[in-house]
Amino acid sequence: MTSVVAEQLTAAELAAHFHPVPGYLAAASCGVAADVTVAALQEDQQAWAAGRRGPADYDRVVSRTRRLYADLVRVPSEWVAIGSTTSGLVASVAAALPDGAEVLVAEDEFTSIVFPFLVGGRLSVRSAPLAELAQAVGPRTALVSFSLIQSATGDLADTDAIVAAAAQVGALTLADLTQAAGLLPISADRFDVTVCHAYKWLCAPRGVAFMTVRPAAADRLVPVSAGWYAGEDPWASCYGTEFTPARSARRFDTSPAWQAFAGAEAAVELFSRADLADVWGHCVGLADELCRGLGIEPRHQAIVSWPDPEGCQLAALTAAGIQASGRAGRVRVAFAVWNTPDDVAAVLAALGRVEGR
User: Fold this and answer.
1) What is the CATH code for 49-272?
2) pTM exceeding 0.90
């Protein structure tokens, strides 16, 4: 029998599930709910209010969401742990490193993948410019921690060079996918550990985060946040002093935010069906169009930012009804699947850069 593979959703088909106000250019800060996500949340709330939702129901939701995310980032579901924050998941990595171990991070990196290594002062944390991160890996480096796409600037890491440099010295790699998952195709198996909060480009409710762990790295990590949900049988791990950790990456699980997962299941399923190469092309195309309108070199990335130390340009965008953000003394706009050329024109008009003016 020939198996039938469902066709992937194009960028336009995926966009049809979203209905934000015009000018919403803030996916890098917070995604917006798709219609299927809203429906799933409403159904769950109604069932919860009626007393028709229990822990076992949410267990099935969490398990399916884990599988969907694993498919999205192209790893086995046994590699995926769930949590509520990226920093909480990163803590399991930090706890595993010996005193004095060197952690290399990108300059101006998002702090959720930096601060867990600074707490307690046990580790030596060193930074380098993102473009020079691979060259900065040295013989003392135990871990390289970086975002696949930088939050403040949208810059893409040179993952090939970083992974190769880390492998040469036996260092672990930790990649934050929060600004990348749901936006471009990802193979998480390239890295020892990845983390991702799903409330940005995956458009899930806040409170759902994922970690992937290669089996070879799993035994080197410490499940410092272990609770009942990290047991091999969570329902046998609720009481007492006997702890049998899950054999899979579930040993790093923290107890799930049940209602948030009801929405995340629908959101992650939607993006798991998408042609992310087409989504990336759509978003980058709009971003490059904006760059040309601003008179700057196209960057071939979905996030565009430029210096705005006084916040004047962000204020102009806000006054025009455009939702952007300010980060690190820069104004930042993020083009998601729901954005159109009209959004580019609106930004240029708000900034007084319309052709002919």
Assistant:
1) 3.40.640.10
2) yes
